[in-house]
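Design job #97: recover the sequence.
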């Protein structure tokens, strides 16, 4: 369980790191793309406006010398990506160097809609055409005697240029993805390295808890034996001293339970807990637990009963199963007020499945607390639990036992109405 915490942190670290890297790369690619596009565009626009100026000048000259027009039938531009159209004020074409057949409808479409400022160049994308053609266009008025007589539209097919830019961006993105993968792998490695000292420190802590609780057992049993001895000593007659001895025994008993619970938990962390499985009759074990708890239940006038199978044999760890039953039944009796009911059910809903239920009519557990009751040292009401000899480790141990058996433990509860713990286990063929 605890190792998973470290693996989880490592995964999270790697994830966050990768996300930050990805965000950074996306911004980078965007900025590079934008600045490439901007510099390309401004360069092209400058050229186009210059060309437009030259063409306008040439056309003005031609209009003043119409005799030259015949020879100039076929105006060839220096680049076949360039084209121009001269329209008079009525919208009649005067002269042109046509754009390619595919492009021309789009160009006319632009000219018909466009109100260009002189000297402005704009890039338009053909949304309708299949090719997503792009042209850069500029318009230039032609003047004669201070009056506009025509407009020159000059354009350039920049589709290929934009496609090139797109390709460059794609390959940049590819590279970025590759870099991200490498960075994530390195990040994962480094996160693993960073976690090593933490794991070691945690391991030491765990070992300490296990050793400490183990070491405490001997002195505690010595104190217990001594208290027993005093308890049975006839020379102690003072009621006060008798009470002191009884109190000491009580506290030592609680402490012994706490220490052995701690040891269990510490060992489960160390993965030092092993199952000693054998054929166990779970129904009989439940009956035994009930017999053990009967005096406590009687004291509170609680009806403690068992239902379900008369006998259910499975391959389980007997001692741990009894511990589990005891924890659940003990809690049920503890947290059920007088005249309540506690029912233990041993069921076999389907072949190969065991269902163990411990239901009470007690105080119940609120929704928020339901998620926390399996945590170590969690108690809804600390004072009440301690008074009843609880230390908050019971359900943590119960969960550990169920996990060791590869089963699940769940709780259904309603505040003030009662609680039902449900344990499901596999029943492997015992033969
Ligand atoms: P504790 O030693 O305090 O009983 P557990 O781990 O066994 O510790 O239980 C944790 C807490 O869950 C308890 O303090 C109690 O508040 C709550 N709880 C456990 N079983 C029941 C139950 N049957 N009914 C109501 N509350 C319960």
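Job complete. Output follows.
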């Amino acid at each position: 369980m605890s190792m998973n915490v470290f693996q989880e942190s490592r995964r999270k670290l790697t994830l966050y790191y990768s996300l930050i890297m990805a965000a950074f790369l996306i911004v980078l690619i965007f900025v590079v793309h934008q600045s490439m596009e901007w510099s390309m565009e401004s360069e092209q626009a400058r050229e186009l406006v210059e060309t437009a100026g030259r063409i306008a000048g040439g056309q003005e000259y031609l209009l003043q010398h119409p005799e030259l027009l015949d020879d100039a039938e076929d105006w060839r531009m220096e680049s076949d990506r360039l084209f121009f159209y001269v329209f008079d004020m009525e919208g009649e074409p005067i002269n042109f160097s046509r754009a390619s057949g595919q492009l021309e409808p789009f160009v006319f479409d632009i000219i018909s809609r466009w109100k260009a400022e002189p000297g402005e160049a704009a890039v338009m994308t053909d949304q309708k055409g299949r090719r997503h053609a792009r042209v850069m266009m500029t318009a230039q008025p032609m003047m004669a005697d201070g009056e506009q007589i025509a407009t020159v539209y000059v354009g350039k097919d920049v589709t290929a240029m934009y496609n090139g830019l797109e390709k460059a961006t794609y390959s940049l993105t590819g590279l970025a993805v590759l870099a991200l993968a490498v960075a994530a792998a390195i990040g994962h490695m480094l996160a693993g390295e960073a976690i090593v000292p933490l794991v070691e420190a945690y391991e030491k802590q765990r070992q300490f808890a296990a050793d400490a609780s183990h070491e405490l057992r001997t002195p505690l049993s010595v104190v217990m034996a001594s208290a027993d001895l005093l308890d049975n000593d006839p020379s102690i007659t003072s009621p006060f001293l008798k009470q002191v001895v009884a109190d000491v025994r009580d506290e030592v008993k609680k402490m012994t339970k706490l220490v052995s619970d701690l040891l269990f938990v510490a060992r489960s962390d160390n993965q030092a807990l092993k199952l000693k499985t054998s054929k166990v009759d779970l129904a009989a074990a439940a009956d035994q637990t009930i017999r053990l708890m009967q005096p406590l239940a009687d004291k509170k006038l609680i009806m403690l009963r068992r239902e379900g199978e008369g006998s259910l044999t499975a391959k389980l760890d007997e001692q741990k199963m009894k511990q589990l039953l005891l924890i659940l039944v003990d809690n049920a009796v503890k947290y059920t007020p007088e005249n309540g009911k506690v029912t233990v059910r041993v069921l076999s809903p389907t072949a190969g499945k065991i269902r163990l239920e411990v239901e009470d009519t007690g105080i119940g557990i609120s929704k928020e607390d339901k998620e926390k009751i399996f945590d170590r040292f969690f108690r809804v009401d600390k004072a009440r639990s301690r008074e009843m000899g609880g230390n908050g480790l019971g359900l943590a141990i119960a969960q550990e036992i169920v996990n060791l058996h590869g089963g699940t433990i769940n709780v259904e509860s309603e505040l003030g109405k009662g609680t039902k713990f449900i344990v499901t286990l596999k029943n492997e063929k015992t033969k």
